[in-house]
Amino acid sequence: MADRSARHPGARAEAVAAWLLALPALLLMWVMLLGPAVAVLLLSFTDWNLGEPEMGWAGIGNYLQLADDPVFWQSLRNTLIYVGVSVPMTVGLGLGAALLVESVGRGRAFYRAAYFLPVASTLLAMALVWEFMFHPTVGFVTQAFRAIGLPTTDWLQNPDTALLALAVIGIWQNLGLAMVLFVAGLQGIPRDLYEALAMDGADGAWERFRRVTWPMLGPALVFVVAIIAIRSFQVFDTVAVLTEGGPNKATEVLLHTMVQEGFRFLRTAYGAAITVVFLVFTLAITVAQTVLLDRRAHYG
User: Which CATH architecture has domain 61-295?
Assistant: First the structure.
């Protein structure tokens, strides 16, 4: 190693130049991403409330309080249920939509844009449309259930259905994103594999999907699941606009609890502790995605 610099006199200069070129990006990363995360982590170990002139060290007091807080556990449970419902449905429907769109001969660009429109729309505005659709008397969902003889309810005010109704909205919003990501994965599959499969006499749609499409979509599938799971963990808008965590905390989720504690009740340090828990879940999903993608890098 000592002789490496002697053999390559310009290596050290290149390394210094590389660090200097990367320095603005590193500083921006610290200012915009890592710095605030570290600040929130440190704040969660204090007893500071918004507006107070002094800040004291509380250690793990906020986390011990979280462990005894039934509202926190309810919000965590609701968040996990929301993710458990919305992610599989979004991924499954997104894959189906991608396969259908790619099989269309004409108008493919139109269908892609139509499916992606909910992702680009303002969810706060669309929440008002969904509020009308879930209306207990004149809403489209209620009318549809009545037309096929199924029982109806006040979807957003019934504790048994409110969280599922919000999950339906989340599925509708993220479906287009999952479809676009799967379309990118489908377009990356070599056509030669399908031709080779046809030469082997297995050219049916199911055989093409089972033997080629599904195995080759492995990395894309892991990426889509991770992205949709992170977006589902971030559910807040629909809760804040449509239910405000009700009825009876049936739709209380982590981000809504954090905002309530940190900005409505001004318990800033306690809200920071909830944020750290949220960041831990998000980091766990990201790490799992990285590990799984690395394992499936060769489409094994």
Answer: Orthogonal Bundle (1.10)
